[in-house]
Design goal:
It contains 15 helices and 12 strands. The strands form 4 sheets. Strands 2-1-3-10 form a 4-stranded mixed beta sheet, with helices on both faces. Strands 6-7-5-8 form a 4-stranded mixed beta sheet. Helix 2 packs across helix 11, helix 6 packs across helix 7 and helix 7 crosses helix 15.
Length: 335
């Protein structure tokens, strides 16, 4: 069973070296796969802001992985103070099973706990040799698609929702959506457990013709591996992806960090937090706080809402993503 101490043990030695009068605290943020760079910046900024306001030193550790796997880690005992995951459903599961998150977590922060949003786009190899323009191109013969597993990854699940939405809304029916999903995943050579793993498969292992990924992860791919090697294709329609944040109240109370944890999540809504989120390629809730140059990188496109496609996350997971449900049936029959 994972414990918070395994992430914070390094801090213990540091704490021993501090003067006895120095106040200090620590937080653990359990996050989803492609937020590493964002929270490196946020953590540094928040620590400085907290020190200035309170005089207290604070350190923030961040754990990353596929969103649903991260949620399972918290359920199994990883003592996060806050979670910043890829799916509202994952936080609902923590609240329902582990009962360390309040059932009304959406009401504790603005916009249902959504300080920023994102969408799903495509990364292709330079020159776009397979002429990928939209979702219909992903099911063509000979196109290898890299996308995370929707059963373990928040990005993978949002990609599945986007693909299903394209089938229902643009192709015209659930039967056509099923056919589209089957053809799409027939073209997927490997299902990584998280978005960052899929990026590695595509960009470093040189697998596939197109990567379906979070918008911010697409920009990071170009930054890290070279705009001379890859380019971003934004389809005309995709999904409004909503990665939420929440207090893990029971743990924060246990650790004596409730005040700090709440302030940390509040910081995500602050002018500085919103500006930083846009700089890291997330679409901020309050774009007026972001640099115009950062906002200009976000193309306009039709964004399908989850609520227009499914009655609830429970419906999606029970009908589509549970073991033996629609996704397994379609994926297993791909050959």
């Amino acid at each position: 069973m994972l414990k918070r101490a395994s992430f914070l043990s390094a801090l213990a030695g540091l704490a021993l070296s501090l003067p006895a009068h120095a106040a200090s605290s620590s937080l653990l943020n359990v996050s989803y796969d492609p937020t590493r760079e964002l929270y490196q910046d946020i953590n540094t900024q928040f620590a400085a802001d907290w020190k200035k306001k309170t005089g207290e030193d604070i350190s923030i550790q961040t754990s990353h992985g596929g969103s649903s796997k991260q949620a399972r880690s918290v359920i199994d005992g990883l003592e996060a103070d806050v979670v910043t995951l890829g799916l509202p459903y994952d936080i609902d599961q923590i609240a329902k099973i582990a009962k360390v998150v309040s059932p009304d977590w959406r009401s504790q922060f603005p916009n249902n706990g959504l300080p920023y949003t994102s969408t799903l786009v495509f990364v292709v190899r330079k020159g776009n040799p397979k002429a990928i323009k939209g979702w219909d191109d992903l099911v063509k013969p000979g196109v290898a698609v890299v996308v995370p597993n929707p059963k373990t990854s928040g990005g993978g699940r949002w990609a599945y929702v986007a693909a299903w939405g394209y089938g229902v809304k643009k192709l015209g029916s659930e039967d056509k959506a099923k056919d589209y999903i089957q053809k799409l995943y027939k073209n997927v050579p490997v299902l990584d457990t998280g978005a960052r793993g899929s990026t590695t498969t595509f960009a470093q292992r040189d697998v596939g013709d197109v990567l379906v990924t979070w918008e911010n992860e697409a920009f990071l791919t170009l930054n890290e591996f070279g705009a001379d090697k890859f380019e971003i294709v934004t389809p005309s329609v995709s999904v409004l992806a909503e990665p939420p944040v929440a207090l893990v109240e029971a743990n924060a109370i246990k650790h004596g960090t409730l005040k700090q944890a709440k302030a940390y999540l509040d910081f995500l809504y602050s002018p500085a937090g919103q500006k930083t989120e846009a700089a890291h390629y997330y679409r901020p809730l309050k774009p007026e706080f972001a640099d115009k140059a950062d906002l200009a990188r976000f193309p306009k496109l039709e964004l399908l809402k989850f609520s227009d496609l499914f009655k609830s996350w429970d419906e999606l997971n029970t009908t589509h993503l549970a073991d033996g449900a629609l996704f397994d049936q379609l994926y297993q029959s791909k050959s």
